[in-house]
Specification:
Largest sheet: 5 strands, mixed
Strand order of the largest sheet: 1-3-2-4-5
Order of helices and strands: HEEHEHHHHHEEHH
Number of strands: 5
Helix content: 25-40%
Strand content: 5-15%
Shape: globular
Number of helices: 9
């Protein structure tokens, strides 16, 4: 999601909805995270072989090239991205072509009736990564499958813990999620999200292919082979 006008009906943002509806989503779901937020201590660091505590990336796979995804679990456009691009990214990981770096960030807390759902769900993803990073992909997909609408309270901690254990995590994640163990870390890592070309603030999803940050408006067409694979091969 970005605070930008829809250029044409073939833009991947418009898949499954009208252009007018997309404009409503972009305005009502406003995702640009402004720079006036306070930077604080990262708090407890998620100690896991898969987590880069400097960037917040949760690594999936070990391929030589990289795709980084910066996502907010309440962002509906992130869910659209997952449905359109996820299968291709999963295959690239399975074929050992890429390392998929998932960055759970939080820019939509204001759209969850004060429950800070974006921060809580992102923190839960780190809880799963610390417990066993192999379960992160399943947890991410399950969160999207049960994604709450913007401007609702979101899923409560008990539901997040249930989703995590259903994805394979141990019961230890329950206390981690209930305690909000990595919430400060999420806030700190959100500030490190790169700004897309031509934008003045960060947005979700933000995608980088081998270190090059893409523009959602200009570079994401809905065709993962063109937008991701061709750039990796180029």
């Amino acid at each position: 999601m970005m605070m930008a006008a829809v250029r044409k009906s073939t833009n991947w943002f418009a898949i499954g909805v009208t252009a007018a509806a997309v404009v409503v989503v972009l305005i009502v779901g406003g995702v640009v995270w402004f720079a006036n937020s306070q930077v604080g201590s990262p708090g407890t660091l998620p100690q896991s072989s898969a987590v880069n505590t400097e960037t917040g990336a949760i690594a999936v796979g070990t391929g030589p090239k990289t795709v980084d995804t910066y996502i907010d679990f309440m962002c509906p456009i992130c869910n659209q991205f997952e449905q359109s691009y996820g299968p291709t990214l999963d295959q690239l990981v399975a074929d050992d072509q890429i390392t998929l770096n998932i960055h759970p960030i939080s820019i939509l807390d204001r759209a969850s009736q004060g429950t800070q759902y974006s921060t809580r769900s992102a923190s839960a993803a780190y809880c799963v990564a610390v417990d066993d990073p192999a379960n992160v992909p399943a947890f991410v997909k399950a969160l999207y499958a049960q994604q709450p609408s913007e401007n609702t309270a979101g899923l409560d901690d008990a539901t997040l813990a249930s989703i995590a254990t259903s994805a394979g995590a141990s019961d230890a994640v329950t206390s981690c999620i209930n305690d909000g163990t990595y919430e400060k870390f999420v806030t700190a890592m959100t500030q490190k999200t790169p700004v897309q070309p031509g934008q003045s603030g960060i947005a979700t999803p933000t995608i980088a292919v081998d270190g090059t940050v893409l523009s959602n408006q200009n570079d994401l067409t809905g065709d993962p082979k063109k937008d991701i694979v061709a750039r990796l091969d180029g």
